[in-house]
Amino acid sequence: MINNFRIRMAAGILQAGGIIAYPTEGVYGIGCLPHNLGAVERILAIKGRKSDAGLILIAASPALLAGWIMPDEEEFAALTQPTFHPTTWIVTASPGVSPLLSGGRHTLAVRITEHPLAAALSEAVDGPLVSTSANRSGKPAARSGLDARIQFGSSRDGVLYGARGGAAGPSEIRGAKGKQLIRPSV
Fold this sequence. Notes:
The chain is α/β, with parallel strands linked by helices.
């Protein structure tokens, strides 16, 4: 059961420009709202991640990615097809998407999340969330809210506690055109 109060509190932190850790299908993620580039820069800094790597956006539905992506028919079909495990798709980015999100490419990594808390949070903010694994670069991804709290301390503004989904680790990443494997699922 989803605790709407906790979702509203987490959404409020994000809408105020904050960063939160939250459960996803396989690991805890850390994220912010993608239009808040100051928060995106904070995430990159606390993770020790280079900006040219790009970041993933997750959303409860393809409609919540409007304005961020411009998928053609093949990309949209990939994005909306059922998969056996969480899959992040590389699709055409909308013009003007920040290089902090795209890594300087004309594409963007996106996933329709099936995790109930992450999806509810996306719906509460009426848009996508930046989603990168909750870890410092080179370290294992957080597997619980406590792990995320320990790894990031006061550098994040909140934690939405909850169970991870059933995946063993981070999502698989595939190019939507041709469905080429970029990062296998764990």
